[in-house]
Amino acid sequence: MGIRSFPGVKRTGRGVDHPPLLGPRLKKEWETTNKGRITKDYFPKVAERLHAKIHLTQNFTTIVTGHGNIKAYLYRFKIIEAPNCPYGNDNQTAEHILLEWAILKEDRERLIAAVAKADNWPIKKEMLIKQHYKAFAKFTKQIDKIKEMN
């Protein structure tokens, strides 16, 4: 089977160019929808995400979407009985894991130290991707500790 082509999508040597997919309707939909709020904090513009060179992992995706092995997410679908973090009264959300979860304190301190070389903490989430991706990706690898603790 050969390579499929689609009207209006230009192929280049490095793959498919995405601008035709980013028509005004999709941009407006992304900007106006209430869905994907967590992801929008990291990627306010669809084009930025499509052009970002990111190694997607389950952990990275969990943090930037709030979907995955996080108690608040599992509770939302009635998979578990409570959204609470096992180490406090807060709901275990992606935000809680990034900013507060005690289990990742040392990992968070390393992330903060890396960010502090150029910026102040807390930092806008989109800047974690744009300017501190390597340190942020390293931090997200550590959330496997959730599986051990939950």
Describe the overall structure.
The protein is an all-alpha fold. The chain has one domain (15-149). It has ten helices and two strands; from the N terminus they run E-E-H-H-H-H-H-H-H-H-H-H. Helix 7 runs antiparallel to helix 9 (133-141). The longest helix has 12 residues, at 105-116. The protein is globular and about 45 Å long. The N and C termini lie far apart (45 Å).
Would you summarize the structure shown here?
With 150 residues, this protein is an all-alpha fold.
Tell me roughly what share of residues is in helical segments.
40-55%
Terminal CA distance reads 45 Å
* Helix count from the secondary structure assignment: 10
Give the tally of β-strands.
Answer: 2
What is the string of SSEs from the N terminus onward? EEHHHHHHHHHH
Task: Please describe the topology of this protein.
Elements: E1 11-12, E2 15-16, H1 24-32, H2 37-42, H3 46-51, H4 58-65, H5 71-76, H6 94-99, H7 105-116, H8 125-130, H9 133-141, H10 145-149
Antiparallel strand pairs: 1-2
Descriptive terms for the model:
150 residues; mainly alpha; two-stranded antiparallel ribbon; 10 helices; 3% strand
